From TrEMBL:
Protein name from the UniProt record: Ribosome-recycling factor
GO molecular function: ribosomal large subunit binding
Segments of this protein annotated with the region Disordered: 139-161
Function: Responsible for the release of ribosomes from messenger RNA at the termination of protein biosynthesis. May increase the efficiency of translation by recycling ribosomes from one round of translation to another.
GO CC annotations, alphabetized: cytosol
UniProt cross-references to NCBIfam families, sorted A to Z: frr
Entries under SUPFAM superfamilies matching the protein: Ribosome recycling factor, RRF (SSF55194)
Family: Belongs to the RRF family.
A GO biological process held by the record: cytoplasmic translational termination
Signal peptide (from-to): none
Domain spans labelled Ribosome recycling factor: 20-183
Cellular compartments annotated: Cytoplasm
């Protein structure tokens, strides 16, 4: 019974950390990454579709992303979607493909992105603490129903706290790695 609570808690906290890593992948670092355009949706025959589903998205060098649509008639639609996404660059359409030229980041921009990363990490920590609360509530419910003793309940809550501490440490490590990546020139 308690092992199920531990496993569920670990699984949920792992999902929160995975979500944080996905969020981090959308942040810009020293060199561009195709994840920057992952959230962009293109109107593909009336259906909002991910940009990488309507064309080839590749990084051609440290500051350039090239987008080649599968269908030429989508160029204008893709260009419009990129402009509306407000990712900090204007698309250059040459009739065959779209290039996004990202200027080198200033130290102020880097600091701003670090702030965003810290905000994302804080949201993940809040999610972890909420999961800890759910785990502890389940343990207390078992104690109240007399399925476990008071001592077992205390030990179980300590175990949930250990799982929480490990997850928070993982978030801190992920954040510091990302911070170094962002600040590296």
């Amino acid at each position: 019974m308690l092992n199920e609570i531990y496993e569920h808690t670990k699984e949920q906290m792992g999902k929160s950390i995975d979500a944080l890593k996905r969020d981090f992948s959308t942040l810009r670092t020293g060199k561009v990454n195709t994840n920057i355009v992952d959230s962009i949706r293109v109107d593909y025959y009336g259906t909002p579709t991910a940009l990488n589903q309507v064309g080839s998205v590749v990084v051609t060098d440290a500051t350039t992303i090239s987008i080649t649509p599968w269908e030429k008639n989508l160029l204008a639609t893709i260009e419009k979607a990129i402009q509306e996404a407000n990712i900090g660059v204007n698309p250059n359409n040459d009739g065959d493909f779209i290039k996004l030229f990202f200027p080198a980041m200033t130290s102020e921009q880097r600091q701003e992105i670090v702030k965003q990363a810290k905000g994302m990490a804080e949201k993940a920590k809040i999610a972890i603490r909420n999961i800890r609360k759910d785990g502890n509530d389940k343990v207390k419910k078992l104690e109240k129903a007399k399925d476990i003793s008071e001592d077992e309940s205390k030990k179980a809550q300590d175990e949930v706290q250990k799982i929480t501490d490990a997850s928070i440490a993982d978030i801190e490590k992920t954040l510091s790695t990302k911070e170094v990546d962002i600040l590296k020139v």
